[in-house]
């Protein structure tokens, strides 16, 4: 089993990252380099989270082995002798041989840092650029990132000059490398605490509120009102941009040098707008013979960028609106079925997508009613209590992990108790649950936050390239300080435990933070205590209230604006529901129409054929011509009447003055 666990987790994490990226990204429409770069960034960050527990168990085994091999008299002080018995010091099932983990962490860490600080920012500007050629996009990306890269180079250059001039500093390359790592982790820890403080409170609270009857439905109504406003704004913005494209397409003729740029812009427009505008190929006048002013290439680049953004936003709002409608209809069905006496879940609308037969066989209407109306609220309440308990443990450990005598961090207590018995399964499970919960609190906040329309992770393949790359940057910057914080909570970091023991392979790659004592002994220890203040602010929704005061409508139960938006969203959902009901009723009437009169026409046709065969047996040869002539004309009449009946569509409204039976109206005429 040596190294098998590492290989299995590498494969599993790859498919996990691929699944999440497929949910948010669009493999068919987005550029392959964007997909590959984002997948690599997500994969490396998830891989660090899943592999770190194996590093902890391997380190504990190596400590045990060193303690067994060295007696107290022979100890040179490099390691602390734990004096365990040889029977207890056995190799864990997931043991990773020496030399593999340092190389693995070094490759993973420096690859993620290269992505987050160099490649992904450049690709962001490249993906958002409106250039018409690769060279133009690269030029735009370099110009936009010149300030970004120049700032870091200026700070690093000033630091090198200060070190070179000051005789008190004698830094080597390893120390400079450690300082760079410490600077990156400091920036990441600053953002990590902000996101962690929000997630520790919001995740348990969201599950608890999800168990309340009517809460999700009211919040869905609120989202519907906001999304309708955004949807109308996106449609209006798209109309304005398409009007500019139309004017540019009409002014720049087929023989203009910039016509290729206009054609590239037209390809990015929706199909209905392309058909409406078309190519202006009917005017064969040379462009230089006219005195009209033409747009420059720079203005076309700007217009191209606006077209890409407006089309993506319009498509995203349309898809989100349909998804929100399905969610609202389903929640309304849950509210109606709660008082059902038959205890079978009844849907107002049938699912538009074909259901899996296996799921349909086991997930019957009765099972669905028991889950949605009885079991699901209690399951969410129990899960919320468990998550809240984990949050309290994390907050307590963040405030007390610097204390080593006595050990107050609960995570450190759990790991040390398991280390005494060398229960590696328990150690790995405890480490995995701890870092997994921390990752969920941080990463879920990254998926939830929205910076206007510039950064927004939308599910169902509606996330743009800029947001995908930005999320990869955030993950790569947050994961290393997250892992260091986890090692500090469990006292596996020698900087926190103040023990001269063998460090983990991950900590050895980070280097000794003693080079910067004010960061190792100050910022890394006391700054995570701010998570308490952030949790209190999140619990009382201070950030939500501030955004609401600034004009950004947020869902708040005691706000008059929230009540108005809920009523507006409820009316919008009711309107869409009536519209869909009319569509289904119209389809049902058409189906019944075809089934009723299609069968009657078939029986009429069979009766005519049977009559022809019966009369032909008693007729002479010279009387067959008029009979066949009559039969052909009668068949033509029947075919015409069948086509008319099939083409006719019933009216989609009810009125007393209109007769629903077409046969009676035909006889009346």
TrEMBL record:
Q: Where is this region: Disordered?
A: 576-669
A Pfam family cross-referenced in the UniProt record is LMBR1
State where composition is biased (Basic and acidic residues).
582-617, 635-644
Taken from the UniProt entry, a GO cellular component term is: membrane
Ranges of Polar residues compositional bias?
618-634
- Listed transmembrane segments: 6-21, 33-52, 103-126, 146-165, 177-201, 378-396, 425-446, 466-489, 523-542
Q: Which InterPro entries would you find in this protein's record?
A: GPCR-associated_LMBR1, LMBR1-like_membr_prot
Compartments annotated for it: namely: Membrane
Give the record's membrane topology. Answer: Multi-pass membrane protein
Q: Give the GO biological process terms.
A: adrenergic receptor signaling pathway
Which family does the similarity line name?
Answer: Belongs to the LIMR family.
Name the record gives this protein: LMBD2 protein
Gene it is expressed from: Lmbrd2
């Amino acid at each position: 089993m040596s190294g098998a666990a590492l290989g299995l987790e590498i494969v599993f994490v790859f498919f996990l990252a691929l699944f999440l990226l497929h949910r948010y990204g669009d493999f068919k429409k987005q550029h392959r380099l964007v997909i590959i770069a984002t997948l690599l960034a997500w994969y490396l960050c998830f891989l660090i989270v899943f592999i770190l527990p194996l590093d902890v168990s391997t380190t504990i085994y190596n400590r045990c082995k060193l303690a067994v091999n060295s007696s107290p008299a022979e100890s040179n002080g490099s390691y602390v002798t734990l004096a365990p018995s040889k029977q207890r010091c056995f190799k864990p099932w997931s043991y990773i041989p020496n030399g593999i983990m340092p190389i693995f962490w070094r490759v993973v860490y420096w690859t993620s840092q290269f992505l987050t600080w160099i490649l992904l920012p450049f690709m962001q500007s490249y993906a958002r650029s409106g250039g018409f050629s690769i060279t133009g996009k690269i030029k735009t990306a370099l110009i936009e990132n010149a300030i970004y890269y120049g700032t870091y180079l200026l700070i690093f250059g000033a630091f090198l000059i200060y070190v070179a001039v000051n005789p008190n500093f004698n830094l080597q390359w390893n120390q400079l490398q450690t300082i760079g790592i410490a600077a990156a982790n400091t920036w990441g820890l600053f953002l990590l605490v902000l996101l962690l403080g929000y997630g520790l409170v919001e995740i348990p609270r969201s599950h608890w509120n999800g168990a309340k009857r009517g809460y999700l439905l009211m919040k869905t109504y609120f989202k519907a009102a906001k999304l309708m406003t955004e949807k109308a704004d996106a449609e209006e913005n798209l109309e304005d941009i398409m009007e500019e494209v139309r004017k540019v397409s009409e002014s720049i003729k087929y023989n203009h040098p910039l016509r290729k740029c206009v054609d590239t812009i037209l390809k990015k427009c929706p199909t209905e707008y392309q058909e409406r505008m078309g190519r202006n190929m009917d005017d064969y006048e040379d462009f230089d013979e006219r005195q009209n002013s033409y747009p420059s290439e720079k203005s076309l680049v700007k217009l191209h960028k606006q077209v890409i953004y407006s089309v993506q936003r319009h498509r995203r709002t349309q898809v989100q609106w349909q998804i929100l409608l399905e969610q609202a209809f389903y929640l309304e069905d849950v509210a109606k079925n709660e008082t059902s006496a038959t205890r079978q879940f009844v849907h107002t609308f049938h699912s538009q997508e074909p259901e899996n037969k296996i799921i349909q066989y086991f997930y019957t209407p009765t099972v669905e009613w028991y889950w949605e109306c009885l079991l699901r609220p209690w399951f969410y309440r129990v899960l919320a209590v468990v998550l809240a308990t984990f949050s309290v443990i994390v907050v307590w450990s963040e405030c007390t992990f610097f204390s080593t005598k006595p050990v107050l961090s609960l995570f450190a207590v759990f790991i040390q108790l398991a280390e005494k018995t060398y229960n590696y399964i328990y150690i790995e499970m405890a480490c995995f649950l701890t870092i997994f919960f921390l990752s969920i609190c941080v990463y879920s906040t990254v998926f939830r936050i929205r910076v206007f329309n510039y950064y927004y992770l939308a599910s169902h393949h509606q996330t743009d390239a800029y947001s995908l790359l930005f999320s990869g940057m955030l993950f790569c910057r947050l994961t290393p300080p997250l892992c260091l914080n986890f090692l500090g909570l469990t006292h596996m970091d020698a900087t926190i435990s103040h023990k001269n023991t063998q460090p983990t392979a991950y900590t050895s790659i980070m280097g000794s933070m003693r080079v910067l004592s004010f960061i190792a002994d100050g910022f890394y220890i006391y700054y995570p205590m701010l998570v308490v203040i952030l949790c209190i602010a999140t619990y009382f929704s201070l950030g939500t209230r501030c955004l609401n005061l600034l004009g950004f409508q947020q869902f708040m139960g005691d706000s008059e604006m929230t009540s108005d938006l809920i009523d507006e969203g409820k009316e919008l959902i009711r309107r869409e529901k009536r519209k869909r009901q009319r569509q289904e009723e119209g389809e049902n009437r058409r189906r019944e129409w075809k089934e009723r009169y299609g069968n009657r026409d078939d029986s009429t046709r069979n009766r005519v054929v049977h009559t022809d065969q019966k009369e032909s047996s008693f007729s002479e040869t010279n009387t067959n011509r008029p009979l066949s002539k009559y039969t052909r004309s009668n068949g033509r009449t029947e075919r015409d009447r069948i086509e008319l009946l099939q083409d006719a569509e019933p009216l989609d409204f009810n009125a007393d003055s209109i007769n629903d039976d077409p046969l009676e109206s035909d006889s009346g005429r």
